[in-house]
Amino acid sequence: MQLFTENIYRDYGDGETVVHALLPTTLTFQPGEQAAIIGASGSGKSTLLNLLGGLDTPTGGMVRYGEENLYQMKADDLARFRRRHIGFVFQAYNLIPELTAEENTLVPLLLDGQKKEEPFFTEVTEALGLQNRMTHYPDALSGGQQQRVAIARALIHHPDVLLCDEPTGNLDSKNSQEVMDYLFTLSEKWSITLLVVTHDAKIAQRFPRILHIEDGQVGGDLS
């Protein structure tokens, strides 16, 4: 599913106190495309990602997935679309401590009233090296394992687009490399569009396309 934005922007406040978090931006991402989004803290990276994922409301402009205009949807329809087509991975793992790794992974399906597809569940957890950790609670998992559970949760509903905001920010270099290897492998295997916000230059250089944001302005692709 193609992801397209046209002059999307986000302001906070108004008048003399207005903050232009993201200036008008037009971008196109093809199905299965992989891109890194880089820039200084506060430059607008997370704002862009949140607008692409329907987590924030733009001040103006359009975000379209295929023929679906994200911000013309009613709230319930938007929530349903996110659950079925968009996966999110954040720096904070956001796992529910009272749930096992398996239960955390299945949360998106439960929210959408869907049942677990056993073959796909097995494929995802084995691809992420989690098959022997599914009965563990988050406090019994390492940081790298918790992040992989978060990735499994983001993938379990077959998303078309995976949006990752500093997914390796809390990990050491070894776990960071492993997590990114998984993301690239799964993106290529299942033709998932992979967009990753990162401060890590080594990670950004692995992507075929790099977008740089400065003061809310998305500069030319650095690919």
UniProtKB/TrEMBL annotation:
Q: Which InterPro entries does the entry mention? A: AAA+_ATPase (IPR003593), ABC_transporter-like_ATP-bd (IPR003439), ABC_transporter-like_CS (IPR017871), MacB-like_ATP-bd (IPR017911), P-loop_NTPase (IPR027417)
> Which residues span the membrane?
none
* Gene Ontology cellular-component annotations: membrane protein complex
- Write out the entry's keywords from A to Z: ATP-binding, Nucleotide-binding, Transport
ABC transporter domain location: 3-222
Pfam families in the record = ABC_tran
What Gene Ontology molecular function terms does this protein carry?
ATP binding; ATP hydrolysis activity; transmembrane transporter activity
Tell me which SUPFAM superfamilies the record gives: P-loop containing nucleoside triphosphate hydrolases
SMART domains given for it?
A: AAA (SM00382)
Taxonomically, which superkingdom? Bacteria
Membership in a protein family: Belongs to the ABC transporter superfamily.
PANTHER family to which the protein is assigned, alphabetical: ABC TRANSPORTER ATP-BINDING PROTEIN MG467-RELATED, LIPOPROTEIN-RELEASING SYSTEM ATP-BINDING PROTEIN LOLD
| Name of the protein described by the UniProt record | ABC transporter ATP-binding protein
